[in-house]
Amino acid sequence: xxxxxxxxIENNVLTITLNRFDKKNALNTVMYQTLCxxxxxxxxxxSIHCVLIQGNExxxxxxxxxxxxxQHADSQEELAAFAFVKTLASFTKPIVAAVxxxxxxxxxxxxxxxxxxxxxxxxxxxxxxxxxGLCPEAASxxxxxxxxxxxxxxxxxxxxxxxxxxxxxxxxxxxxICLADxxxxxxxxxxxxxxxxxxxxxxxxxxxxxxxxxxQVLSAIEKEGAEFARLVKTDxxxxxxxxxxx
Length: 246
What we know:
The chain is of the alpha/beta class and 246 residues long. The chain has helices at 29-44, 66-73, 80-90, 106-109, 140-148, 150-157, 165-171, 180-196, 199-210, 214-231, 235-243; strands spanning 5-10, 13-18, 50-54, 95-99, 102-104, 116-120, 124-126, 163-164, 176-178. Keywords: Isomerase, Peroxisome.
């Protein structure tokens, strides 16, 4: 279970690498807790000006580890995923992401909190919440409609249609499309350049850009969390999730 999340600081950039490739970087409780700790450290470390989150040139994140998720779903404690979402939404420094392969569920919704997203053209994005008997999370119920309009957001969030990195670029979710062997280097160069700019100016600019929606985002996370916690305990959701292990 060790080293599922790697982190490295260089040139004022904290690079976070999801490192569970045998499970397509599906996130479990330990990984969420480590991500929270790592982002909290970045928040308070003045030498970190930008965060880069990545997998490798073939895989970003296949969403929640369903076995781990089921194990903790009936707990009265807040799911670790929601603690991570709150940490991400409250983070005040620029975030860059590099996406290849699967970007499922939280693997897509976390990108809505990033400032620059680079992707391969054939990356596979999917938001299968309704198909699992669940609802959106990470304030995606607010952020995605704001980004691409209600109708297209409904198609992606409720119908759960798969879409590619190229489509994500067309929708404005992704900044640029890269070849697989250039993805990580391109994202790293972008993060390094952002980190080289005056930190106070970049963080102030970012905060100003988010001020109109920040309270709405935090409110949405709370409402989504309550509905998600309710839905995950329904017979419908339990049966759907259990079917993956039968």
